Amino acid sequence: MTQDPLTESQFLAMISELFDRSKESALKSAHELWNSGAIDKEQYENNYVLPKMFMVVYAGKMKGDWSRLGTTPEMKKEIRNMEQFV
Question: pTM of the entire structure?
Fold first, then answer.
């Protein structure tokens, strides 16, 4: 039995769910980073520079974590293709 193709609304709902799941983990990591002594908090102004830097680091972590889930060569090729459009 084959499944129906993924619809746009299903795709967006799944993306939303993944963001919801990742949010808790990201906030935990941000909290740990903040309290780790790894950053000089005094050098950052009250703007989005440091949070955006964290998000870049966290996105890289997510890429590493999720790409270890058995990504096939075909999936890697598709990921590289999608990177051109995001």
Answer: 0.77
